[in-house]
Amino acid sequence: MRIAYVITRLARGGAALEVLADLAACRAAGLEGFLVAGTRPGPEGDLGPRALEAGLEVVRVEALVREVSPPRDLAAALAVARVLARRGVDLVHTHTSKAGVVGRAAAVAAGVRGIVHSPHGLIYGLGSAIPGVSDRPFLARALAHVERAANRWTDRVVALTEDERRAMVRLRLARASRVVVLGNAVDTGLFERAAVDREGARLALGLPVEGPVVAAVGRMSREKGHQVLLAALARLNGGRTAARLVLAGDGPDRAALETQARGLGLGGRVVFLGATDEVPRVLAAADVVAHPSHYEGFGLVLLEAMAAGRPVVASRVGGIPEVVEEGRTGLLVPPGDPEAMALALGRVLDDPGLARRMGEAGARRARAYDRGRKARRLVALYEEVLRGRAR
């Protein structure tokens, strides 16, 4: 079976990381596969070098971009179609909304037998908070119409959670019979091993060995809610005044967040690491992992934190309640509420026994999302699609 994955860009973030890991796992399972991606890196950095280190082939298409541009999008579809036809691809799996439209059109033009699409979150769904889309209702409605049209070509649409599956059906984006739920996955062993050396992780990051540490990992864009987390840190009083916050990630809001931290008097307590490949070490250094998103399809870092045995405090939005068991593996708070976030963080930091129990429960739960298990389900899905097309 020859498969091709299509994504607009390999920007450092959950979707691209998941795509690379899935493709590597499927290749390890015996499939032939490669990745088609645009050439523009995101402000968070480009994962192209990581793909090469993993032995993955990446075919770059310059016209494949994240922004909507009909002339460029047509050129991208034609270019991708030529790649697919030349390689004799059996099945295309598109990732994220824009690449989903361009890649599926290209697959149809190239006569590819099977088409699977993963939106990695609904950019036009209820509760979405995607800059440039959610704040432009006409564009969101137009994109939803385009998505409905593209799904007529699609054999299966992959939802990250049951919540997302229900939203797809409710918004008439796909037939219920074509939607399957297949969440993100995690290399549990990687995070379990790193979590053993908490002291070493702190020293490597320039943090004091003692004292409470909160960590957050994610793109610095307003839908991720970092501004709420900074406001929450400023509210942590009493014995937790020395709590430090480690922020791993980069993005368009980084400068504004640095300014906010200084304005709140947090300059010496917040560490901005920028884009980093040391996420296992960041999570190992933490007492609790915060995820204050205003919108989230899944929240890959939540799985990683749980695999590291760390309790989490996250917003009650999107698919997060299906990942985090409230009161068992972490605490959920309303989005955009720094007071609630501060109270939840304080509760975990004040009660080491609670933190330990949540971390242990999270580690057990994370094993259900093991990378190998997901790879087997993906291969079975692709085989099912191609068998259906062969009838």
Question: Radius of gyration from the CA trace?
Answer: 21 Å
State the end-to-end CA separation.
17 Å
Main beta sheet: strand number and arrangement?
A: 7 strands, parallel
Range of helix content? 40-55%
**Overall pLDDT, averaged?**
90
The class by helix and strand makeup works out as alpha/beta
Number of helices: 16
Protein described:
It is a single chain. With 391 residues, the chain is α/β, with parallel strands linked by helices. The chain has two domains: 2-185 and 370-386, Rossmann fold; 188-368, Rossmann fold, CATH 3.40.50. Helices cover 46% and strands 15% of the residues. It has 16 helices and 13 strands. It has helices at residues 14-28, 48-53, 70-87, 97-110, 137-150, 162-170, 188-195, 198-204, 226-235, 254-263, 279-285, 300-307, 320-323, 338-350, 352-366, 371-390; strands spanning 2-7, 32-37, 58-60, 91-95, 114-118, 156-159, 179-181, 213-217, 244-248, 270-274, 288-291, 312-315, 330-333. The protein has a seven-stranded parallel β-sheet, with helices on both faces. It has a six-stranded parallel β-sheet with strand order 10-9-8-11-12-13, sandwiched between helices. Helix 2 links the parallel strand 2 and strand 3. The longest helix is centred in the last third of the chain and has 20 residues, at 371-390. It is globular and about 60 Å long.
